[in-house]
Every structure is written in C-alpha cells, then in structure tokens.
User: Which sequence fits this backbone?
C-alpha cells in the first residue's frame, strides 16, 4: 500500500461564489489560509456550493474495512457581521453523481479557518481507479433570509489523501539459450 495527496484540478460546479476558478480551492488545507486570504469569495446571494474534481491516482484505490480514503477541507465563515450559523454537507461524488453524504454539521462562530476531514472506502466507487472522484462542500443553511443575518461558508483548500495499492511488478521474461561452439570442419 502507498499513499499520495491530490489537490483538485477541476472546478466541476459551484454556486454563489464571485467568478470562481479552481485556484480558489486548490490550496493545502494545512497552510495558513487566514494570512494568505485564499478563499472562494462569497457573492452574498445565498448558500455556497463547490464541487471539485481530482487527478487520477497513481494506481487502484486501496479498499476494504479500515483502509479509507480521506478528504480534508479548510473553510471559514464569510461576512463577519451576519448572525446566522452556516450548516454544511460534506459529500463524495463520482462523475457528477452523489455517492455518499460523509458528514453534516455547522461551522463554529468564527471567521478563522476551520478544518474538516471525512473518510470513505474506495469500494463505494463504481471505478476503483479513482478517475472520477469529486468532493462537494455544500452550504445547507445560513446565507439566506434577512440580508443583515446572512453568513456564508467560503472554502479555501481541499485535498484528497489517497491510499492506493501498488501494482505488482511486471514479469520479465528470461530467455535462456545454449551457445554451441562450432569448430572447424
């Protein structure tokens, strides 16, 4: 078994961000995002949603009980003055289709970075190569209603900690031959 970290390489879908690009969301969640200010920018028009795609892992995903894949997301509350508490849904998608809701909850009352992780089994995918893995972080409440109370979730970093199975080495055919010494006739 081996592992690698994958940052998103595609912004599959989003809503209620100002001109989003994959670069708004492809930072390492462990980085100091509060200093860099690298978060998707909320457009103040409702609950945010981001669906991110990842590059295909090096080899087939490791699957089975206790052998889990992990998503790691960093986000924060937008709009420091709004009184609503944003709720979220953290989801695994594959090729544009939801596979599983991994976690739900609410953000703490802070505009500083908050980190979330969610694990899932590679067997839950229809293609264990991981070629179409997507992570969705959906705001479910808090950014609608009375304008003065709205608060959004702004995602700043997302990462997939991939566990994969190393393919066994290819066999190398060995050709043996006998060299016959030819003498003079």
Assistant:
């Amino acid at each position: 078994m081996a592992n690698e970290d994958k940052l998103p390489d595609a912004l599959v879908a989003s809503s209620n961000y100002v001109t989003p690009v994959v670069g708004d969301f492809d930072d390492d969640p462990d980085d100091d995002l509060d200093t860099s200010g690298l978060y998707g920018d909320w457009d103040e028009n409702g609950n945010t949603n981001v669906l991110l795609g990842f590059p295909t892992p090096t080899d087939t995903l490791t699957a089975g009980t206790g052998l889990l894949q992990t998503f790691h997301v960093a986000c924060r509350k937008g709009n420091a003055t709004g009184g609503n508490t944003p709720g979220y849904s953290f989801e695994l998608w594959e090729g544009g289709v939801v596979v599983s809701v991994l976690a739900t909850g609410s953000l703490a009352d802070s505009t500083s970075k908050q980190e979330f992780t969610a694990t899932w089994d590679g067997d839950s995918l229809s293609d264990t190569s991981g070629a179409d893995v997507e992570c969705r972080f959906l705001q479910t409440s808090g950014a609608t209603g009375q304008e003065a109370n709205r608060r959004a979730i702004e995602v700043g970093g997302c990462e997939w900690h991939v566990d994969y199975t190393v393919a066994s080495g290819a066999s190398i055919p060995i050709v043996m031959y006998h060299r016959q010494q030819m003498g003079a006739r």
About this structure: The first strand starts at residue 2 and ends at 6. The chain has one domain: 2-164.
